[in-house]
Specification:
It is built from 13 helices and no strands. The protein is mainly α. The radius of gyration is 17 Å and the shape is globular. The mean pLDDT is about 95.
């Protein structure tokens, strides 16, 4: 995929709206960046669609627009011209486009103020958003089917880390973000998630050529460990990794 004006626009969008994923994409091999920027720009557009309006119907229409675009990609025919959709169509195959449709559908939760039904619903939301995004990127870069389970699990854990960082903002928007917001429950959730993750080396071996897709999770384990030790940081909006350590972790993952 040539790095044309569309991909430059995608990169600029990710840089502004999702600096962690932008840093991860820039740390990837040059050949992998077009795929990552197209997918991360798509994720930015979908993630912010429910938040740019107070009208639920308009938000639903925005998400449906992306579902229609993914359906066009999955069918393999004519795809609408758009600075994100056009490069996305070059990055995805039919299965990946269908999987990302679940990502868009899961974002409907963001439109409304209803809490998650239970722990399974919360996990499904993380799996269908962050988990699906990481796996789609790894698959587009050449990861084999045997890598799906560990990559998807790491993407889901990355989603949890990011979600915990967003809890104060969600609460400010009158949302109920956590099924159980008690400190002990947050700590237990983080410990359980960490206990199931493979090592960095094992993840990279499993992903093979899709390993650059893992780099967006370079802060995941550090954030989850911090939340497990000091769960009060979640409500305080204090889940933070200092810049020097961030750079070190990015270097290790890339």
């Amino acid at each position: 995929m040539p790095f044309d004006s569309d991909l430059t626009a995608c990169a600029s969008l990710v840089e502004r709206a999702d600096p962690e994923r932008f840093r991860a994409a820039m740390a990837a091999p040059v050949a992998a960046r077009p795929v990552l920027f197209a997918l991360y720009a798509f994720n930015v557009e979908v993630a912010r669609a429910p938040w740019v309006t107070q009208e639920a119907m308009i938000a639903e229409m925005r998400l449906q627009w992306w579902r229609d675009a993914l359906e066009e990609i999955a069918k393999g025919g004519i795809v609408r011209r758009h600075e994100v959709v056009t490069p996305l169509a070059h990055a995805l195959d039919t299965d990946a486009a269908k999987a990302l449709d679940r990502l868009v559908a899961a974002r409907r939760w963001d439109i409304y103020r209803d809490p998650f039904e239970d722990a399974d619903h919360f996990h499904a939301y993380l799996a269908d958003t962050s988990g699906a995004l990481m796996w789609a990127a790894a698959q587009a870069l050449g990861a084999g089917s045997e890598a799906e389970a560990p990559v998807h699990a790491f993407g889901t854990a990355t989603g949890l880390a990011r979600f915990l960082q967003a809890v104060p903002e969600l609460e400010a928007q009158k949302r109920v973000p956590l099924v159980d917001g008690r400190a002990e429950a947050i700590a237990a959730l983080c410990r359980e998630t960490l206990s199931t993750l493979p090592t960095r080396a094992a993840l990279r071996r499993a992903a093979g050529p899709g390993a650059p897709a893992l780099t967006e999770g370079f802060l995941t384990q550090a954030i989850l460990k911090q939340a497990a030790r000091e769960p009060g940081r979640v409500a305080a909006g204090a889940l933070q990794i200092n810049p020097a350590r961030q750079s070190l972790l990015l270097w290790r993952w890339s």
